[in-house]
Amino acid sequence: MLDQFRKYQDNFIFSFLILAIVAVMGLYGVNQLSEDKPGVGAAAWVNGEPITNDEYQQVLGAQIRMIRAKVGSQADEKFIAQFQIPQRALDELVQYKLVAQQADRNGFRVSDKELAASIRKAPDFQREGKFDPDLYREIPNRGLLEKRVREEKLVERFQTYLAGRLDMPPDMLAREHELKDTKVNLTLGRVDFKSLAGKQNPSSGDVDAFLKATPAEPIKAYYDSHQKDFSTPAAVQLRQIRVGLPFQASAEKKASAKKKIEEVAKQTNPDNFAAMAEKHSDDEHAKKGGLVGWVNRGTLEPTLEQAIDKLQPGEVSPPIETSYGYYLVQVKDSRPEKVKPLEDVKREIAKTLLIEKRTDDFIKNKKSEWEKKLAAGQSIENELKAANVELKKTGPFSLGQGYIPQVGQVDEITDAVFKLTKAKPIAPKLYPNGNDFYFVKLESVEAPRKSDFEANYEAAAASLEQQLQNAFMTKWVEDVKEASAVRIDVKFDGA
């Protein structure tokens, strides 16, 4: 039953409506218009036409104000960045500009009479409910205002024209309604094959046999690519004296700490370092004479690493500035990085490779065994239960929502569900999602009643028409943008 709907799904699955074209007059405000020169301070270029930084900032500011009016204090800087509001605002301006350009190229025009009528209706030029020409004459940049109003009317007219080109007969709307409101209930089983494979711990004899049967090249290749696993890193044995600083310390506190470490440094030498650390260091190592112990190289702050590079065992460093405060360090001893010889770790590598092979073989064989049954239309629910794979029902949901409960948006699984029927309810394979695989079975299909749609035809049809028009406009703008020259000059944080 679901397969007949498959070709219609893209018409109503929307995560959001992309084409939010800017209402220029409403967002900018007449008094905020500015006459930035083309080429100066451009936020983006659309087919050689600039979107000025001034335009962009005005639209962005208006959108942020609208968002904060809806969600309140939650819309802080982190919120704005997380939802990429700056990027979205500029993208909407780019889309707006593309539509305006296409309208002009297709011969759409706004007459002077229409322009004048729009300006006369603008709230900024009303006094006591009537248009006041004196208010309009006070605007110093009327040419720019008229250009933007004309462009806004042009975009509005062209959008209406494009949307009106869609022919959606009643039978198509009925099919869309049926797809949107058809509910399915699935049984899902999430299979983690690696967990099912277990530890696969081989015996000593198994390792010996594997090592004997395996050529030297794979062992050597694993050894070369996992050097860190067989290495003891270079390390130093340290003593330290610290004069700590709080996070974001003031200039005065930094100066005081620096003066103190410099005074301590004048009195410290290799022989009395431990005593000076016990007396002056303000960290947990002070009571042990500043003894930190063995520290792996590369794990300290760069300034400390650089200072240690210059020290011989026993030497004391000059004062070192770090983000935690000021330090004096003494290297008591050092040891170089040491890599275990291949011969010493050959059995360890062989054991690892044997475990990987057995795990891969188990996954391959078990997956093949189960998928043979699924391809033949047989259920593997008993096998999954025996393997402690939990089977869960989704409960009735609409595929039109664009995702599957417990799974998310996985196109391959969604495609498979559309092909399931009451006669053939079991998906013919296991479907990947990340590191897991999913067993899918159709439990039930609940089609909406035609009488419900017919009883509310006008409202339902209007809603579906709007969705289809939005989808059409979204795709149309994407195609236009793909064929256009768009350059973004704004640098977004984190981009």
Report on this model:
- This protein has 495 residues and is of the alpha+beta class.
- Helix content is 48%, strand content 16%.
- It has 19 helices and 16 strands.
- The strands form 5 sheets. Strands 5, 12, 13, 14 and 15 form a 5-stranded antiparallel sheet that branches. The chain has a 4-stranded antiparallel sheet with strand order 8-7-10-9, with helices on both faces.
- A hairpin with a 2-residue loop joins strand 1 and strand 2.
- Helix 7 packs across helix 19.
- The longest helix is centred in the C-terminal third of the chain and has 34 residues.
- It starts with 23 loop residues before the first helix and ends in a 7-residue tail after the last strand.
- 19% of the residues are buried.
The helix/strand class is alpha+beta
How many helix segments? 19
Question: What is the beta-strand fraction?
Answer: 15-25%
Radius of gyration: 35 Å
Name the shape in a single word.
flat
Average predicted confidence as pLDDT: 82
The N- and C-terminal alpha carbons lie at a distance of: 45 Å
* Poorly predicted spans: 1-28, 34-40
* Major sheet characteristics: 5 strands, antiparallel
User: What's the total number of strands?
Assistant: 16
- Fraction of residues in helix: 40-55%
